[in-house]
């Protein structure tokens, strides 16, 4: 099962860059390093199995910020005081109806509380349930222009609505979200910085819209540039916590 043979492997370089990646990750991001740099490279079947759909108990992670997804794909809800903002919509209509909505209900909300959906990028695990949510609850739906180019062609994809672009600031109820275009994972990936609260203490959350490594070299370079830029933006904004969609 261990398929560690790579064509033209340069062992010295592999050792050098793995060591640098591990040092960069440190204790906080060691699990991410192990998944991206070891597990997914050497044991891809195990890596794939790590993202098998399964039930995760919904919970309030920060004050008014809730996890409502499943084990393979995340979805998040933010209570703005004037309705919910949902980030991503799971894989399909069935998951939106049978996972996302029941998770909201377990937290004391109902589907009609959803006033806005943000789709981080144009992969089905993130837009798949959006059309069902649109049809049933009619929220405003925010997607980047590049992502809309693909999504309008998808059968049963979300109906085109609002477009968010670099630097857009949305104030919804008592919450403000600032958006950035961060292509790489997909051409239309968007990322967000916003405030969250823990026991009354404010923190800044950085939500990077697409961390999965793309297959094409040009897209990889684009993603590296986006990650580097978002890291700089996060430092300037005082980001001290990360939110993810897997």
Automatic annotation (TrEMBL):
The keyword Metal-binding applies. Its cofactor is Zn(2+). InterPro entries: MBL_Glyoxalase_II, Metallo-B-lactamas, RibonucZ/Hydroxyglut_hydro. The keyword Hydrolase applies. Residues 72-246 form the Metallo-beta-lactamase domain. Keywords: Hydrolase, Metal-binding, Zinc. It holds the Pfam family Lactamase_B. One of its GO terms (molecular function) is metal ion binding. This is Beta-lactamase-like protein.
